[in-house]
Every structure is written in structure tokens, then in C-alpha cells.
Automatic annotation (TrEMBL):
Gene3D superfamilies for this protein: Hexapeptide repeat proteins, Spore Coat Polysaccharide Biosynthesis Protein SpsA, Chain A
Molecular function in Gene Ontology: glucose-1-phosphate adenylyltransferase activity
Record EC number: 2.7.7.27
Site (Could play a key role in the communication between the regulatory and the substrate sites): Q58, W96
Keywords attached to this entry: ATP-binding, Carbohydrate metabolism, Glycogen biosynthesis, Glycogen metabolism, Nucleotide-binding, Nucleotidyltransferase, Transferase
Domain Glucose-1-phosphate adenylyltransferase/Bifunctional protein GlmU-like C-terminal hexapeptide: 295-398
Keyword DNA-binding appears in the UniProt entry: no
Binding positions for alpha-D-glucose 1-phosphate per the UniProt entry: Y97, G162, E177, K178, S195
Protein name in UniProt: Glucose-1-phosphate adenylyltransferase
Highest classification ranks of the organism: Bacteria, Pseudomonadati, Pseudomonadota, Gammaproteobacteria, Vibrionales
Function: Involved in the biosynthesis of ADP-glucose, a building block required for the elongation reactions to produce glycogen. Catalyzes the reaction between ATP and alpha-D-glucose 1-phosphate (G1P) to produce pyrophosphate and ADP-Glc.
Catalytic reaction list: alpha-D-glucose 1-phosphate + ATP + H(+) = ADP-alpha-D-glucose + diphosphate
HAMAP family: GlgC
Amino acid sequence: MHDTLTIVLAGGVGSRLSPLTDDRAKPSVPFGGKYRIIDFTLTNCLHSGLRRILVLTQYKSHSLHKHIRNGWSVFNPELGEYVTAVPPQMRRGGNWYQGTADAIYQNMWLLSRSDAKHVIVLSGDHIYRMDYAAMLEQHKRTDASLTVACMDVAKADANQFGIMAMDSTGMVDAFVEKPIEPPTMPNQPNRCLASMGIYIFKMEALIEALSKDADCCASEHDFGKDIIPKLIDDRSVYAYSFCSDIGRVAKDCYWRDVGTIDSYYQANMDLLEPVPPMNLYQSNWPIRTYEPQYPPARTVSSPTGNEGIFINSIISNGVVNSGGSVQSSVVSPNVRICDKATVSNSIIFDDVHVGEGCELNNCIVDKHVTIPPNTQIGINPNDDAKRFHISPKGVVVVPEGYQFES
């Protein structure tokens, strides 16, 4: 894998995930109790044998840089291995990144000083597990200039993706970004082939495409809108099926763009299914993260005699439940749940204190929040709307460090 350079794009604003992204980059948003969103992409790199990884950051990147430093300093620089966070260098003018392609173009010097023959371009804000080594093997076997990972989606959802059409050999002959009338799959008029935003380029093909795109004033400097459609006309572009049987990771075919509050909430709730659609428990594919050294979670009988209970929930280290009830929820580290408090269908971030008699339902509570006794959240929509953001599907979001009125 030393002939391959990996670039993880982690600089997006993530405005649709506000207020969770008001003070942090989208890839560093907590997920599944103990993880950050970017952990899934970096874990895939780790298990796929990719050891030269650049993470391009931009907006509100402090917590992301800190997480990468604390949790991902696992490679050996003496062997040419690294996971390096790269903030904007402004080497080609004073602009922020203008698009996904421009982010790499502005760091072209990193490509030019690399001896890699192939470049894997990934997003740092999707939830999935994938063996990139299998995709890279196909890319080399077909001698493709570009290979695009894809999955089939319902035609009704095609306007959310870049949609491809390919011939019988797997070569892509059309690519349309978020089309109203998308091309459909052969013999499946209600299904379309969607790009996952996972690309493998030949190095020389990527450099040439980015250089041409940079000189085009009409370009949005985006891979889906500009780079890929033009490459199809000039070079060999192949599709790689995400749900193929190739690779060492379990074939669960789960991939989620958690770009909105509702999609993020649902992806967390998916983990609570009796048989979760994504398997976090595959022994040879554990998800790596940074985790503070908290003691194990525990339940405690309250002075009133109530037992702390957890039902169908994910509970992280350091959680203490003193006579409360938690059901169908994801609870992050170092949370305190007090007597007679009920938490259901909710996501609780680190260092939250849930006071006595509180009722929480269908909500997300960000870090460092102390909820006063007998507070209701997610119970009365009118009251919630006066204080908090409510998603289109009714998920109530309490922002980080929120101070309740005394």
C-alpha cells in the first residue's frame, strides 16, 4: 500500500447539522456513544492497510485536530506511515477551499512531493465500514484512471446523489450530479447507481484533472459536478460495487450520510435494532477511537429505593444511573442520571447531568449540559420550540453548554 496516498476531506461547514456543528467540525461530532464520525473512515483506512493519510480540515477544526492527535497517532513515521491533519495553507491565494476538488488542488504540493502512484479520496463524514483494499485491487486490475465506489438506491432518492450509468464491463459512461430524471439500472427501472463519494485516482490523472479544473472560471471545483463528468469523456472510469462480496469486512452494505439532524439521529437509533444493520462487533474490524480512562458504567439504588435501569440502550464508560430509567437511547461517557429521571429514544453526549425527575424523549443533548430537576424535553413541542432547535421529524436538540433558567 506504500504506492497509495489517502486524502480524507474533513473541511465542510456541516450547517445542516447545526447546532451540533456550531462549535465543531462535522467529522468530529460524537456518534454511537464513544466514537466520532471520522473514526469510521479512518478505521476503514487502518484495516485496509492504508498508512499514508492526510486529513484536510478547515472550519472549526480544533476538536477534530485534538481527536486525531489523541486517538490516531498509531502509525510509525520511521516507516513512512502517518495520519496528518492539514489545515488550509493558502498556498494558492488567500481563499478558503472553494469545493472538494479545490481542497486537494490547494494542497497539490503534497501530491507532488509524494511518490504515490494512486490517490484515494474519501469523505470524513459518512458512517460505514468498507475494505478499500478490495476496491484498490480492482482499480489496478482494470488499469482505471478513476474508480468510483457506488451503491444502488431508489430512483425516488436519486436527486440526493451523483448518479452513474455504466456498460456491461463496469465502465462508467455517464455521471449526473443530483438529477431530477436520473438514469436507472438495467432491468431495474426503479433503482439507480449512486456515487458514495469514494474515489481512487491514478496520480497523474488526478493532477491533470485538477490543474485543468483550476483554470476553468465556470467550474464549481467539485468532484461530482466537474471533475468526474469530464474524466469520463477522456479517460477510463470504472464503478466499484460497495455491496460486492470482495473484501474482509462483513457485507452489511450500510452507508449513511449523516448530514442532517434527522439522518444523524436515525443512524444512531439504527445501532439499537435487535440485529443492527451495521455490525460494530466484528472482531477483526473494530472501530478505533480515543476514549478517556473512565471507570465502567454502573447502576445505583437511589435513596428512595429506585433501581437504575437500562433497557435496549448503548451505555458508555463512566455513566452512573442512580435510580433513573434509560430506554432505547445512546448514552456517551461520564453522564449522570438521577433518581426518577426517564430518558427514552434519545442521544446524550459526554458530561451531561440529568436531574431528578427529568423526562427526556426523542432528543439530543450535547456536551456539558446540566438539566435541572423535573425538566421536560421532547414532551411538549410548544415549550421546546421556545428554547431549542427542533428537526423536521421532531428531534429536539439541546446545544453544548446550554444554561437553563433558574
